[in-house]
Structures are given as C-alpha cells and as structure tokens.
Specification:
Layout: E1 13-17, H1 21-26, E2 31-34, E3 56-61, E4 77-83, H2 87-97, E5 102-103, H3 106-109, E6 117-120, H4 127-136, E7 140-143, H5 151-164, E8 168-170, H6 178-188, E9 193-202, H7 225-228, H8 232-235, E10 239-248, E11 263-272, E12 277-283, E13 289-297, H9 319-322, H10 324-337, H11 345-363, E14 369-370
C-alpha cells in the first residue's frame, strides 16, 4: 500500500495481538491501529494538580529547537536567562520567553547563581559535555536528544549525575506520543510485549544546516532515541545485544566526513533484557518521514488506559506529536516534587547507548555486539 492509499498517520503505532499477529496484519485481521490524534474511548487521567507555589528559574540554551518548548506557559516556571552563540538566536529566545537577561555562551550562563536549572538544546555532539558542565555548576538539567554521541560521554554523564545528586532528564519526544503513553500504561497493568519495532525516517536530514555541520553524514544510529523509545520508553527494560547493517550512501558526503561514516540508512536487531526482539530503523534517505512503531502482545489487552497526561491550564501539548508540553511539565514537576523525572539519566542512556553500539556493529558487517549497561549499581 502506498502512502496515498494509507489512511493512517505516519506516526501511527501498530499494536497486534497473539501468535499469528504478523500474518493477521498482512490480511487485515486482528490488528489495532493507533495514531497521535486518535482519542477513541480512552479514559482520561485525573486533572493536573498544583503541587507548589514555587517557580523554577530556568536558563534556556539553544535558540533553534530550544525555543519550541512552552516553559513560559507553566505556572511554576520562569525563563530567567537565555543563551546562544549566534546573536540573532539569542534575540529570538529573549522575544519568545520575554526574558531580558542573555549570555553569549552556555559556559557563561551556568555561572548565574540565580538559576535552578538549564535546558540544553545545543548541537547534538555537545549534549553530554554540556550537561556535565551544567551539573558541575550545581544546576539541574534537561537535554535535547540524544544524551551523548560516545560511550565515554555516557559514562561521564552518569558519573556526574550520581556524584552531584542533581536531576537530569532527556527530552525524548516519542515518549509522550499518545500511542506510546497508552502502550506504556498497558505494560504497567501487566500486559506483555513479545516483539516490537521503532522507526525514525527523516529524508535529507544531513543536508540541513547545523552548527559546525554536525548533521553532515551523521551516522543514523547516533540519533536512535526516537526509535528506541518505542521499546525502552514503553517497558523500561533494556536493549542488551545488537546486530546492525547499513546502506552505503552515494557521493562525497559519504566518502569524506568527520564521522568516517559511509551509511545513510541503518537497521538493527536487538536482543532485550526480556529475551525478546526489538528492530530499530533510522533512515536518512527514504520516501517516508516521522516516528512510528509496532509491537506484538503476548495476549490482546482488554483493559482501557489513558493515552494522555494532565497539563496545567493554558499549557497545550505542543509540537512533535503533542510531546513538548508533557516534557516541560514532567521536568518542572519532578523538580518541585524532588523526584527523578520519567526519562532520567538511566532511561536516557538506555535509549542512547544502544545506537552507538549498533553503528559499531554496522561498521563490522553486522557483528553481534553487547550493549553496555549504565544503570545505577
């Protein structure tokens, strides 16, 4: 079926039931399709409840994606300072958040002792280093994805969080897609997943302008979390082993680049800590777009669960499949309640590190490799 014939959202999450589910899917049988906009007959959670009168004083770094999150609409948050290396982006942040204080760099902003926390939406290769810098200056941090680009930075991030005791959260948008929320709630009720998939398709992304051209020839599996969230973010289990293959790109971009990466598309098969299987695709050249997933249940769930989370009045779900509002609210609420956020450093690294190892496997013609764990010992 081509995209013109498919009435379902490309962000749809396919869930199937029973041992014959995949065959049934091909025949149009016992298959349940959900999309981010489908609210059919799902029970709503209790309304948002104010837990404190305190306002978190937040610094926002990164005037691109960083300006998209509705911090200013949360009753317990005020954007007290902003930063970007580019003056026009600093001005944009100041305008969006109605903030008069700006800094020329993250390194300057983190020295501001009036800030409680910092949102890091800088270039992806710097996320790990920048989050470590924020926590070393005594501030909580929320980061754009992925958490890091190297296993060494994954380890440093974990060590710094545990040493400082500060809160870390990764802003993975797939985690708060309505289909993922619902499926996660089903797993919490005891429903068992026996097979799952996560896909992220973004044709031409390596040609988008970026700081120091970090997107140019980016290894697809260095950006895995939109896909791995469809397993880790649903089950809270781990991806333990991987074999991965890549499709080589054509042209100079894929012959000479800072990553020594030849692959424009990568597809991985993971073994999970439950001894089930999870397939993960990240493609930069394809006639498709967006995040999607698929899973097979051990038995079809019959319980009804919520597929949304409550938000403060006046704060709508926002972009990326309605995830921006829930992500911002989760981080602020975790700080107010002095608890770890849903996508804490351990969940973030469980979504990030498997992609780094998967790319190593692709460079070794699909050799099966173990994924190191970064959970609290």
């Amino acid at each position: 079926m081509n995209s013109a014939e498919n009435p379902l959202s490309r962000r749809g999450f396919l869930t199937t039931a029973g041992t014959g589910a995949l065959g049934a899917a091909a025949l149009g049988g016992a298959v349940e399709f959900l999309s981010g906009s489908a609210a059919a007959a799902q029970p709503k959670p209790e309304g948002w409840k104010k837990v404190s009168d305190r306002k978190i004083r937040l610094g926002v770094v990164g005037g691109g994606f960083g300006s998209a999150f509705p911090w200013q609409r949360h009753p317990n948050c005020v954007v007290a300072a902003v930063s970007d290396l580019q003056p026009e982006r600093r001005q944009h942040l100041m305008k969006v958040f109605k903030c008069e204080k700006s800094y020329e760099s993250l390194e300057q902003l983190v020295k501001d002792d009036q800030l409680d926390a910092v949102s890091v939406f800088t270039d992806a290769p710097s996320h790990g280093r920048h989050c470590v810098e924020v926590m070393r200056h005594g501030k909580h941090v929320i980061s754009a994805v992925p958490a890091a680009f190297t296993l060494e930075d994954c380890e440093k991030l974990k060590e710094t969080k545990e040493k400082t005791g500060l809160k870390y959260m990764m802003a993975e948008t797939s985690y708060f897609h309505r289909d993922v929320i619902r499926t996660r709630n089903l797993c919490r009720k005891g429903c068992q997943v026996v097979y799952s998939e996560g896909h992220y398709y973004h044709d031409g992304v390596t040609g988008i302008g970026s700081w120091k051209k970090w997107r140019y020839a980016l290894p697809p599996m260095f950006y895995p979390t939109h896909s791995t969230a469809y397993y880790v973010g649903v089950t809270r289990k781990r991806l333990t082993k991987v074999t991965c293959l890549g499709w080589r790109g054509q042209g100079d971009e894929w012959q000479h680049n800072q990553y020594n990466n030849p692959f424009v598309n990568e597809s991985a098969m993971f073994q999970t800590s439950e001894n089930t299987m999870f397939r993960c695709n990240v493609f930069w050249k394809c006639d498709a777009g967006g995040e999607s997933g698929m899973l097979v249940w051990e038995r079809r769930p019959t319980v009804q669960v919520a597929d949304v989370v409550p938000l403060p009045p006046g704060m709508d779900p926002g972009g990326h499949g309605g995830s921006h509002g829930p992500l911002a609210n989760e981080f602020i609420t975790a700080l107010l309640e002095d608890r770890e956020p849903a996508i804490d450093v351990y969940e973030a690294l469980a979504m990030t590190a498997p992609g780094i190892v998967a790319h190593q496997s692709a460079l070794k013609d699909g050799q099966m490799l173990e994924v190191p764990g970064f959970d609290k010992k």
